[in-house]
Amino acid sequence: MKLMNNISKRVVVKIGTSSLVQENGSLDREKMAGIIGQLAQIKQSGSDVILVSSGAIRAGMERLDLSERPKNMPDQQATAAVGQSVLMQTYTELLSQHAIIPGQILLTRDDFDHRIRYLNARNTLLRLLAFGCLPIVNENDTVATEEIKFGENDTLAALVAACADADLMMNLSDVDGLYDGDPRIDPTCKLIEEVPAITPEIERLAGGTHGLSGSGGMHTKIEAAKIATNSGVRMVIANAARPNVISDVVAGENIGTSFLASDIGLSHRKRWIAFGSRAKGSVVINDGAVQMLIKHGKSLLPAGVIDIDGPFKIGDLVAIVDASRREIARGLTNYSSIEIALIKGKHTSEIEILLGYKDYDEIIHRDNMALGM
Questions:
Q1: How confident is the model at residue 4 (pLDDT cuts 50, 70, 90)?
Q2: Does residue 28 contact residue 87 with C-beta atoms inside 8 Å?
Q3: Of 23, 125, 342, 362, whose Cβ has the fewest other Cβ atoms within 10 Å?
Q4: Helix locations, the chain, DSSP H
Q5: Which of 202, 204, 201, 179 is nearest to 192 (CA)?
Q6: How far is CA 318 from the centre of its chain?
Q7: Which of 264-278, 305-319, 348-362 has the lowest mean pLDDT?
Q8: DSSP code of 234?
Q9: What is the CA radius of gyration of the chain?
Q10: What's the order of all strands across the beta sheet hosting 282-285?
Q11: CB neighbours of 199 closer than 8 A, spacing ≥ 6?
Q12: Which whole-number Å values give the CA distances from 360 to 21, 151, 352, in the listed order?
């Protein structure tokens, strides 16, 4: 059955570690050749292709003859440094058989936190595609610490898809998709083929399913789907072991679970505000302000603020939360946490009296705000 007839113009394919290795943990060149063959076919049909690939640490373990995954950060970083070169060498050799040139991009969470670095990553991706290359993206495990790690490549792939204006993201691992129960416990549960919107019920179904080789579970895939779909990207969760899975999904076959893209995708600036950067603090607002933001699309004024969690500076990204601390939006603040503490709950006309100056009427302007996803 066909899900859609239009061929995707730009596709991001995320491959998990478990889909690249044999049972003994070593890289499976035959599996990788099958993946590259499908990507080459899609590219040759006229679509842009970006590959987000895990597997650097596993490849490094194989080259260094390590029987167990390193537990401390320096050993993980060193193992990834060895493995990333092995991974890229293998991909380069396989792509050369299809006359395709790869381009390696290694990213950390910091690269998305900073607006200029985010734009630089976007520009590099787009130029590589313009040159006819196939970008291969991975987390830069060699320098990433716990504070700046994505933790898994589901989030990275969704951010890349949003950043690069993809219209399809494939999240491939060792699971068939999202089920209405836990298939490990209940063999009668059914695969959910299509998710029009990510509701609390869908989030509850995600649970915490993990594969043996990777670091992500279904929960991280749902979080990735939020980023992708709200950025106008359809995301499909499917099993990488299914023959021709990539080619068939791109051709419109109804495979795995498809998360439909939002009808109104966020602008690039608001994608970065909503998903690219991490909040430095939060602003707590009253119920009236919640309604003004959500229902009427208004800016956040001092009168609606009841509390803050800081510290943060002017221009920092902050979360906007209701009285129960539920996040409803994110935005770039016009005032620091110290200044907001002085003007919270006050009218705009009182800002200059309280601070001695007034640079803005709004604490967060609507143009610099993305409603919670």
A1: very low
A2: no
A3: 23
A4: 29-44, 56-64, 73-96, 109-113, 115-130, 153-163, 200-206, 218-230, 245-251, 268-271, 287-296, 337-343, 351-355
A5: 179
A6: 19
A7: 264-278
A8: E
A9: 22
A10: 305-309, 282-285, 317-321, 327-332, 369-371
A11: none
A12: 55, 38, 10
- The DSSP-derived string for 100-119 is --EEEEEE-HHHHHSHHHHH
The domain limits of the chain are 10-270, 279-371
* Alpha-carbon span 170 to 342, nearest angstrom: 48
Q: Which fold has domain 10-270?
A: Carbamate kinase (3.40.1160)
* Structure-model confidence comparison of residues 335 and 189, the more confident one: 335
Separation of CA 1 from chain center: 29
pTM value? 0.84
3-state secondary structure 15-58: ECHHHCECCCCCECHHHHHHHHHHHHHHHHCCCEEEEEECCHHH
Strand 48-53 to 10-15 pairing = parallel
Contact of 6 with 45, CB cutoff 8 Å? no
C-alpha–C-alpha distance, residues 96 and 88, integer Å: 12
With respect to CATH, is domain 279-371 assigned 2.30.130.10?
yes
Going across the sheet that includes 234-239, the strands are 102-107, 134-139, 48-53, 10-15, 168-173, 234-239, 257-259, 194-195
Q: pLDDT, tens digit, for every residue of 195-214?
A: 999 988 898 887 644 433 33
The pair of structure tokens assigned to 368 is: 């610099």
Pair 111, 81: CB distance under 8 Å: no
Residue type, 226: K
The Cα–Cα gap between 1 and 301 comes to 51
In terms of Cα–Cα distance, which of 168, 83, 162, 84 is closest to 125?
162
Q: What is the dihedral of CA 109, 366, 262, 243, to 10 degrees?
A: -10
What are the Cα distances from residue 262, in Å, to 176, 195, 227? Answer: 23, 11, 10
**167 alpha-carbon distance from chain centroid:** 14
Cβ–Cβ < 8 Å for 56, 83: yes
The DSSP element (H or E) to which 369 belongs, if any, is: strand 369-371
